[in-house]
Amino acid sequence: MSPSLTAKIAQVFDEPGCDINQAKGAKERKKGCTKQLTPGAAAGGCAFDGAKIALQPIVDVAHLVHGPIACEGNSWDNRHSASSGAQIYRTGFTTDINELDVIHGAEKRLFRAIREVIERQDPAAVFVYQTCVTGMIGDDIEAVCKRAAERFGRPVIPVNAPGFAGPKNLGNKLGAEALLDHVIGTVEPELTTPTDINIIGEYNLSGELWQVKPLLDALGVRVLSCISGDGRYRDIASAHRARANMMVCSKSMINVATRMRERWGIPYFEGSFYGIGDMSTTLREIARLLVERGAGADLIERAEALIAAEEARAWQRIRAYRERLAGKKVLLITGGVKSWSVVSALQEAGLEVVGTSVKKSTKEDKQKILEIMGEGADAHMIDELSPREMYAMLRDARADIMLSGGRSQFVALKARMPWMDINQERHHAFAGYEGMVTMVEQIDKALFNPVWQQVRAPAPWEVREVREVREAHDALLAQA
Ligand code: SF4
C-alpha cells in the first residue's frame, strides 16, 4: 500500500465521532478496525466498491474506474439511487486496462480516458477510482488527476480506495475523504440562507429524498447539498456554507460530519427518516439546530404544526393496515439501513419484531434497539444468522414474514414464507410519513398475497397419489 493511502486509512480510523475508536488505546487504534482483505477475495464488497457506492449518486459527475473492466462490472448501477435530472452517473466508464498496461503502467491510458470523457460527455467533474491492479502496479492517480484538471479546466477528483485497502465500509469513508480533500469548500454558493442544511449519508434510494424534501420545503429549510443522493458537484463543493448538518446513514460518512464541524464549525446530529416518530424527531432536531444557528424562532412552532398535521394524516392512512397486521411476526435482517429505525417503524405498524440482525449495527444502534424493544430485546438481537437457521425459523412459523436484502430472499421463498426487500436494492421508497404508508402497504401486500396459500397446498399430483393409495387400501379391505 502506498504511504499516502496508509496515512489516509490511519486518519480515517482516528475518528472522533466513533465511540468504539475513542475507547481504544493509541496502539490498538493504529491497528485499525478491520482486517486487510486479499485481492479478489473481498466477499461482501471491497473498499473500491464502498467508495463507488458512496459517491456514484452524485449525478452530474462521470465516474471513471481505473482498472480491469470486471471492477466496473461489479459495481455498476447496483443501487436504485434516483436522479431528478442528469443521468451521466449511470453510465459505466472504465479504462479497461490490459496485460501490457500492467507491464508498462496505465497512467497515459487514464489521462486519455479523462480527456475522452470530458470531450464526449461534458460532465461537471470526473471522479477517478483506483482499483487493486492499478494500485499494485503503482499508477499515481493523484498526479494524473491534477495534470488533467489543469489541462482540461475541469475538476478531476482522485478516489484512492483500491479493493485491497479493506472492506466496503472503509471504502465509504475513503470516498468521503476524497470529497473532504478535493471538493467540499472549493466553490462559494451564489446564495446562502439562515436555514441551509446538508444531508449526509442519504443516497436517494428509489427516490427517498423526495419523500422528505417537500416537508423541508414546507418549513422553508433549504437543502444546500445532499451527500450524495441526487447530488450535484457544485452544491457539494459549496456545502461548507450550510448552517447545520444531518447525518442519515449510520456512520457511513461520519468523517464528513465531524471534519465539517472541525473546519467550518457546522454542528451535526444523527437522525432517521424511517417511521412516523423518528421522522418527527428529525424535523424537530433540524428546527432546533437551525434556530440555535440564527434562524427565526418561529421555525420551531412551524415544525410542530407540520408534524401534528402530517402525523395525523399518516396514522389515518395506516389505520386499516394496522388492524390486519396487528401481532404478525417479523424477522428483520437489515444490511445498510439502521435496524433500530426500522424496528421502531415496524412497531408503529403494529408488527411484532421477533428477530433483528445487529451485525452491522454500532454500539449506539444496539442501545437504541434495547430502548425501543424494551425488556427481552437482547434475545431478539441476532449477530449472525446462517441461511439454515433463517430457514428453520420461517419453516417453523416463528416469523410470518422476513424483511431482508435480496440475497436472503430465496431462503424465505424456499420456506414458502412472505419476504420483502428492505435493503439498498429495494424498489420502493420508505422515507418520511409518505414512505411509512408505502412500507405498511408493501408488507400487507406481501403477507396477504394469495400465492402463499397456493404454494403451501399439496400439488395436484400429490393429491392424486394420496387418493389412489387410499382407494387401493379400501379395495384391499373390501376383498378381505
Ligand atoms: S478493486 Fe480489487 S477487490 Fe475490488 S472489484 Fe476490483 S479487483 Fe476486486
List the main descriptive attributes of the protein structure presented here.
alpha/beta; Rossmann fold; 3 domains; five-stranded parallel beta sheet; four-stranded parallel beta sheet; 13 strands; globular; binds iron/sulfur cluster
Detailed description of the structure:
It is a single chain. The chain is of the alpha/beta class. The protein folds into three domains: 3-182, 3-Layer(aba) Sandwich (Rossmann fold); 196-314, Nitrogenase MoFe cofactor biosynthesis protein NifE, C-terminal (Rossmann fold, 3-Layer(aba) Sandwich); 318-456, Nitrogenase MoFe cofactor biosynthesis protein NifE, C-terminal (Rossmann fold). Helices cover 51% and strands 12% of the residues. It is built from 23 helices and 13 strands. It has helices at residues 3-13, 19-23, 26-31, 47-55, 69-75, 99-104, 107-121, 132-136, 141-152, 168-182, 209-219, 233-237, 254-264, 276-292, 298-325, 339-348, 363-373, 377-380, 387-395, 409-414, 432-447, 451-456, 460-479, and strands spanning 61-66, 93-94, 125-130, 156-159, 196-202, 222-228, 244-247, 268-270, 329-332, 352-357, 381-382, 401-404, 419-421. A five-stranded parallel sheet has the order 11-10-9-12-13. A four-stranded parallel sheet has the order 2-1-3-4, with helices on both faces. A four-stranded parallel sheet has the order 6-5-7-8, with helices on both faces. Helix 10 packs parallel to helix 13 (254-264). The longest helix has 28 residues, at 298-325. Iron/sulfur cluster (SF4) is lined by residues 39-40, 42, 46, 48-49, 67, 71, 74, 131-132, 162-163.
